[in-house]
Amino acid sequence: MAIVRVDPKGRLVIPKRVREKVGLKEGGFAKVEARDGVVVIEPLKSVGEAYFGAFKVESWPEDLDSFLVEAVRELWSRKATST
Fold first, then answer.
1. Beta bridge pairs of residue 70
2. Band of pLDDT at residue 83, cut at 50, 70 and 90
3. Residue ranges of the alpha helices (H) in 1-83?
4. pTM value?
5. What is the DSSP letter of 37?
6. From CA 32, how far away is CA 37, in angstroms rounded?
7. Are 49 and 64 within 8 A, CB to CB?
8. What are the two backbone dihedrals, phi and then psi, of residue 18, each rounded to the nearest 5 degrees?
9. CB 47 within 8 A of CB 60
10. Neighbours of 38 (CB within 10 A)
């Protein structure tokens, strides 16, 4: 357990030992929700981590999550212009 202060913009710092314990990394994503008056922060695995090793690839992009987001945006823009 740790006690932290919320800053004027509503932000708080999650202590390093807590981040390490749950696997929350810089640049990672977390789900934040309110349950019965309690704020719950749940780290989410990246798409790259979830599927790492599932496919044989000669060379992975440096940031697979950003690569996939851009690929989906490109796909959506192609669909939007073709209709």
1. none
2. low
3. 16-22, 47-51, 64-82
4. 0.54
5. T
6. 13
7. no
8. -75, -45
9. no
10. 7
Element (H, E) at 1: none
For tokens 């851009």, the residue is 70
Domains within the chain, CATH numbers bracketed: 1-44 (2.10.260.10)
Which residues, in sequence order, are CB contacts of 43 under 8 Å at separation 6+? 22, 23, 24, 28, 29, 30
Cα distances (angstroms) measured from residue 68 to each of 13, 40, 47, 64: 29, 27, 8, 6
Please write the tens of the pLDDT for every residue from 6-39.
999 999 999 999 999 998 988 888 999 999 999 9
